[in-house]
Design goal:
The complex is a heterodimer of chains A (about 180) and B (about 500). Chain A is built from seven helices and four strands; from the N terminus they run H-H-H-H-H-E-H-E-E-H-E. Chain A is mainly alpha-helical and about 180 residues long. Among the domains of chain A are: about 60 residues, Electron transport complex subunit B, putative Fe-S cluster (3-methyladenine DNA Glycosylase II, Chain A, domain 3, Orthogonal Bundle); about 60 residues, Alpha-Beta Plaits. The chains are: A mainly alpha (about 180), B alpha/beta (about 500).
Chain lengths: ~180, ~500
């Protein structure tokens, strides 16, 4: 008889606490920092890994944690760096990425054996072709992540600096002889 | 009260004009010499495929083809573009990258034409009565003749005529201002070929369907004013009038001239057609007349060759594609005295690193300037004297924009109206500290454009990456589904066999 009391009271206690915990986990849920989601949406999302983080979300987490500078993303360029700095209210030093020469991958058609390894790896589908056919790079889609260069067995994929044309030429910043300014 | 004041600044004739500077004209070297039409054909012509605003032209001839003068070499592509024609008869030597008439002198696709010296026109040349053509036909023919704005902007004229006809403009303004120092090509053209210009204006009016045209000429060109008055009286049919405008730089800016002559202010991000006006240069009017009446495409232009280092400065009617160095040599220039080559006028023109670039349709002048003529560009600190503010014809605050650009706050300079800056150079000219203000504005504009392009690319990259991930997931799901189906089919095959075995 007594054992029934013990079983019922402990059972009721367990059930009540269980409901309490369940309700608490639903209503007092600790959400992820929404800033991380926002930052992730601003990033290119190609998971290229040029920032030395395994993908865009880890990079966004590092940015929010203050472990990475806003200039971490080479494909995003100055525009993204400026947006990130604005979002996170960070000081922005653009001089670091000013020196960055834009690169683009190119296939040396004499050496390409059509192994199609690069095609599978390209995060933006910039590599076109088919197995046993010579591959080519769509320059406009290439983000210069150089993943294809690493995987190419014949070293026919190489990064080349983008040639300046009349359309991509920019006025240089005027060098003023302003003392102390 | 202030509202009234602002309005008064823009009201009609004889009233105050906003901003402007008075640079030394320096036109006397070339203004009294007739246009030189005896320029010898150069051994090679370099025809850039991108001489105009918009899409580059696409070659329609092959290397080695023999072409006649006026024959189509490269056709226009897209809505805003202009074709290129052979300036003389000869052989197409090559299509290659050649330094272009641009401040960077970077190579761009260029068609090389080797003249054969015969200068033979194509056979299909015939004189037509322009007024028997329909208005649409006029702009079609202007477009086919490769006519672009010859005042310097090189915007395809046919596009402008179409826009004017669609928006039913009331007034055609003809820009004979030529407010840039040194340049006299429009001045000479008005003096020597006034009747042809008036004829061209009447043709454009026919194409536009408007009844009024005003030619604005600066009052420091009395001979051109007199010549154009006579021409307008003789052949203008009472529809073309001449207006003298004060000599003030930048009077040739379309919004300034429209404001002065019609009393209407063009909105900041609007076009001249928004106030019922269309503006063309006198040189363009002449080119239109040649194209429509005689069927001659735009293959040559009048260009001022001047500057302190030029021994015999003059205006030359030269074929498009002539090397600027050839033009300078023809006028006896001294390379050793030249410290700067400028294409266009000294206020808005582009400094060229070297003169071995071809003449383009939009080039009104080539200047070889000596050390005395150029600023030494030792910029000093801004003293906030606000002379640039007084000089700005747009009503901007150049010093505030410059300060922000120098500090790297390009977005902030946009709020001060960087987009409205016309790069006229009045502020740089007025600055007592010799700060290259316009250079800052050009730098900032091109930098902002580059960032826009970069963020556009980032957007594209994200789209590509998302599509790829979706595709990979879909392929995986499809593979899984196919595997499941195969498994089910295998089981279905196995079951009857099992039941048969059991039976």
């Amino acid at each position: 008889m007594y054992i029934l009391f013990a079983v019922l009271s402990l059972g009721a206690l367990g059930l009540g606490l269980g409901f309490l915990l369940g309700a608490a986990s639903r209503y007092f849920k600790v959400e992820d920092n929404p800033l991380i989601d926002e930052i992730e949406r601003m990033m290119p999302g190609s998971q290229c890994g040029q920032c030395a983080y395994p993908g865009c979300r880890p990079a966004a987490e590092a940015l929010v944690a203050g472990e990475a500078p806003p200039t971490l993303c080479p494909p995003g360029g100055k525009a993204l760096a400026e947006q990130l700095a604005n979002k996170l209210s960070l000081e922005l030093d653009l001089s670091g990425i000013q020196d960055h020469v834009p690169l683009v991958a190119r296939v040396d058609e004499d050496d390409c054996i059509g192994c199609a390894r690069c095609i599978k790896l390209c995060p933006t589908d910039a590599l076109v072709g088919a197995p046993k056919m010579i591959h080519a790079v769509v320059a406009d889609a290439c983000i210069a992540c150089a993943k294809c260069v690493e995987v190419c067995p014949t070293e026919c994929l190489k990064m080349h600096p983008v040639k300046t044309t009349l359309r991509s030429w920019r006025w240089p910043k005027p060098e003023t002889a302003l003392a102390g300014a | 009260m202030t509202l009234l004041d602002i309005h008064a600044l823009w009201a009609g004739n004889g009233q105050k004009i906003r901003g402007g500077v008075h640079p030394e004209p320096r036109k006397e070297a070339t203004t009294d010499r007739a246009i030189d039409r005896e320029f010898p054909l150069p051994p090679m012509l370099y025809l850039g495929l991108q001489q105009h605003v918009g899409q580059p032209a696409e070659p329609v001839v092959n290397v080695g083809d023999r072409v006649r003068k006026g024959q189509l070499l490269a056709a226009s592509q897209g809505l805003i573009s202009a074709p290129i024609h052979a300036p003389t008869s000869g052989v197409v030597a090559d299509v290659m990258d050649y330094p272009s008439a641009h401040p960077s002198a970077l190579p761009s696709p260029t068609l090389l034409l080797e003249p054969d010296g015969e200068d033979r026109w194509m056979d299909s040349l015939a004189e037509v009565d322009p007024f028997s053509l329909s208005p649409e036909e006029v702009s079609v023919r202007v477009g086919a003749a490769g006519v672009v704005g010859l005042g310097g902007a090189a915007f395809p004229s046919a596009v402008k005529l179409n826009l004017g006809r669609r928006t039913k403009i009331q007034t055609l303004l003809i820009n004979g201002g030529e407010c840039e120092p040194y340049l006299t090509c429009d001045d000479r053209l008005m003096r020597e070929r006034g009747r042809d210009i008036v004829d061209g204006i009447l043709i454009m009016m026919h194409g536009l369907g408007c009844q009024q045209a005003i030619i604005g000429i600066e009052d420091n060109k009395p001979a051109a004013l007199a010549a154009m008055r006579t021409a307008a009286e003789d052949t203008g049919q009472g529809m073309v009038s001449i207006a003298a405008v004060p000599s003030l730089y930048p009077m040739g800016w379309d919004k300034q001239l429209i404001g002065y002559l019609t009393g209407k202010e063009v909105p900041a991000d609007g076009r001249a057609t928004d106030v019922g006006v269309l503006m063309h240069n006198v040189g363009t009017a002449y080119a239109v007349q040649q194209a429509i009446r005689y069927g001659k495409p735009l293959i040559s232009r009048i260009v001022t060759v001047s500057g302190g280092a030029v021994g015999a400065p003059r205006n030359i009617e030269a074929p498009i594609g002539t090397l600027l160095s050839g033009l300078l040599a023809h006028c006896g220039y001294r390379p050793d005295d030249t410290v700067r080559y400028v294409m266009g006028g000294p206020m808005m023109g582009d400094a060229l690193p070297h003169p071995n670039v071809p003449l383009v349709k939009g080039a009104c002048g080539i200047l070889a300037l000596t050390r005395e003529e150029v600023s030494q560009a030792n910029a000093k600190s801004c003293i906030r004297c606000s002379r640039c503010v007084t000089a700005c014809p747009v009503g901007l605050l150049p010093l505030e924009m410059m300060t922000r650009i120098r500090a790297g706050q390009l977005e902030a300079s946009l709020k001060f109206g960087l987009k409205d800056c016309i790069n006229c150079g009045s502020c740089s000219y007025a600055c007592p500290s010799e700060i290259p203000l316009v250079h800052y504005f050009k730098y900032a504009s091109s930098e902002l454009l580059a960032r826009d392009q970069a963020s556009h690319k980032a957007e594209q990259t994200r789209r590509l990456a998302e599509e790829r991930l979706a595709r990979v997931a879909r392929q995986k799901a499809e593979a899984a589904a196919a595997a499941a189906q195969r498994k089910a089919a295998a089981q279905a095959r196995a079951k009857p066999r099992a039941s048969e075995a059991a039976a």
